[in-house]
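Forwarding these from the shared drive since the link keeps breaking.
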Amino acid sequence: MAKKRISDLLHEEAQKSPDSETEPVLEATVEEVIEVEAEIIEDSSTDTPDKTPAKNSNPTKADLEASVTELKTALDQAREREEALQQQITNLQSNLDEQKSLMADLKGVVKETRKVEASLHQQIANLQADLDEQKKLLNKHQKAQEQAKQLKTELEQAKKAAMQLAEANSKLIEEANALHKAPQAAQPQKHKTSERVSNIFSEPPTDEPADFASKSWLL
């Protein structure tokens, strides 16, 4: 029974702590159990050589071999669990390294993205400045067009006024020419009239009293 309890305890211990320190502990425990059980066999054989029931209660060599086999099996299982755990640790470490690499790559991408973002912001600012400048130039161009349109209208009005003045001037010139020609045409008639007047005054005088008496009866 003592053998069974010890092997059970060893098996439970192997189940609880499957790590790198378990292997030497289990090996030492196996050796101790073998030595203890061998001592129990020797003590039982020397103390009670004549008692058959005592021999039956002591573990036999087959029992010891079974215990050793069981302990070796537990040790092998512990080693397998240790290897599995070690593999898991290796995989986790590999995943961790991969995650760190991805994190570094992501940091690089974020840094590059920030640079691109800053460059885009600068380009947007430059484009906005160019757009504002274009708007100013467009406003100036529109004002210039409005001024040109106004000047064109004023020029057309000035042309019309000049044409009207030219027409009026032409009429005035024609009228002046007509007035200038009219006195020249009237000058011969005036000369004839003066001749008649001179003829009247050049006639010899008549007998005025007789003529006066002959005309005065009408009064």
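-- next protein --
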Amino acid sequence: MRLSPSPADHAETSLQSTVQQSSLPAPLAALIAQLSAQAQHEPMARILADLGRMLGYLRLIEHKVRQDRLLVATMSVFLRLQAETSTLIAFIEREAHRQLRTDEVLAGVLNGVSYAIAHEVRRVFEVELIGLDELRNTSSIRARLEHAYGLLHNAIQQSLIVLAQVFEPTLTGEELFADFARRRQHSLKLYRELDQLLQLAHHVEATGDGRAVSLLLARLTLFRDESMCHLMYRDWNEYESFIAEMRAAQSRFELVTVLNSLTCYLETLLSQVRMRSALTDCNLDVLVPADQTVNQ
């Protein structure tokens, strides 16, 4: 007797179909075809194609989170991603060892890719996704899922870029990924504005100037209204709490206490933005002169 497909079977088929429909960027597809035609590079073609498929899973996760289809809908995709990345990491490590005899540069890149992906996969599944089923707050669940997505997306997209550049050194992130230029501009703007907020906060902390306090509050509010959307969702509530605390400060001591926490928070955000794959080759240290915001 033939059994009818279970809901899990339907979900599996739907997942595979959705990911298969995620087309690879044209330059990457061309490179994979080129490598596939060369026996010595067939393993590299497989690695690039598998990484491209991983990005397809991540796009599906992003879509589900945006639609508020949270824990149940996304965990099946995360678990599939975990299983496939584990297999891929083992394959990459074997290929890196094999390449040591013929191409030390490629072997080094493969080792770096293997380490980066394995590190972020462990971080996601041993930290970010632990205890999600115990959370009752939808915003907290979304924030954790979004952060897990971001960690894996950055690692895999950057891995594709550096591996492709071994064979096509002139390829850029913008050519490989349609959203790369947009994400870079958003990240650069975010970094610049956070750095300006940090410099202004340091100035207020050092001088206690009332006019500068008002300016900092205005800048924090403007950032909330125009740019906070480019931060991780999990950071929104904490950012807004600093605005409320600054407005509520009744004494110099209370203000300094808030400013100390605010500067630490802004430094943490800057470090997180700096690590985004879209900013890997940017010299962020020359983006904003140290005194730019104080005199504006």
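The chain is about 75% helix and 0% strand. Residues 7 and 200 are 55 Å apart (CA to CA).

- D.
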